[in-house]
């Protein structure tokens, strides 16, 4: 029997496994994906949002706790547990040295249109390199790893104590367990249930999945049905408007289109439906998937002109290009008259001051609904470009309610040996909305907490380990 069982194979699961092993516990990690697809959504990430009160290695200037908290409060609209959010924020300030000790490398600060050189630490080689580094460290430390190991049920006693995990007829016992197997974003039926229908059509049928195809929410649903305390709205998620030509699964970050704030966004009726210049793109990119999901046919069109070229991260695929607005509307399959009218109405409303995409500038619209509050410039310089966008689900926010020890609860009572980390509990901090890098901050913070607590529940702690070493060395 292993001391600690980790169910999941992404960042949170790996952090938990490594921390439990560092405590001296024997650890088995079960990853539902095959080895080549290991890592869950973490393989598609690229950075970690970090609090810091002074310049630190790869982070410039400062990003204090209160500013981080206010950024999170703003994007969630207050749907966040402040205690757990601040725990995450503070943990983000001190985790990088530990990450480096397990082979993760960070790249030099970046600048430009992403505006995150101050707030986010980027992984050298992206999330795939991070995941691979953690797996190498896990193997070196003697953590046992099984792939293609999809757990479908747990044995839990009446007091909420974990007894064993089940893979079909196989039963795997352990002294404690960490659940970190992700949300349900790849489960189309559950997405349909969560989002319902508009005009007789299932909204979720037009969703693309930015991340792994293996997050089916099997254990999340099992825990819900077993009476675990839940938190979050099943329709809330990290949902980004991505290139409509993206693959159904695993498109990752490269499918994102980052020019929305430089132009206008239209629905299939050629109408604008939200303020494209509300705030900096890293704080607003994750609202656009949900906004597009609520539009007819779950599709939107980001329209820019030549002035925007070079001011945003170039997408993988070129946009639709035309020399006139009328032609562009036709190429997009929209009513060209309505399309041109909307653009001309927007152009007439623009009040251009000093354009600066690096700040919340004074370029705005007047007398237009919805307004564009920053970076409003007429779309009048040919050639013109457009990108069709669909909702891209990264991970869902429905999860298990936890405390600061990452403990699973049943009717308000904490389990003695069952813990949770990552997407399965992110809804405690993210009731809605998103800001770049906070998902990895949650997974890292609570993965490390859950691993430590699981080792403690199995009878291991750093103090106990130190005492054992003193005995062996004749010092006690």
From TrEMBL:
Listed cofactors: FAD
Pfam families attached to this UniProt entry: FAD_binding_2
MF-aspect GO terms: oxidoreductase activity
Signal peptide, first to last residue: none
Keywords, in A-Z order: FAD, Flavoprotein, Oxidoreductase
SUPFAM superfamilies: FAD/NAD(P)-binding domain, Succinate dehydrogenase/fumarate reductase flavoprotein, catalytic domain
Domain of life: Bacteria
Domain FAD-dependent oxidoreductase 2 FAD-binding: 3-429
PANTHER family: FAD-DEPENDENT OXIDOREDUCTASE 2 FAD BINDING DOMAIN-CONTAINING PROTEIN (PTHR43400:SF7), FUMARATE REDUCTASE (PTHR43400)
Designated name of the protein: Tricarballylate dehydrogenase
Source organism: Glaciimonas immobilis
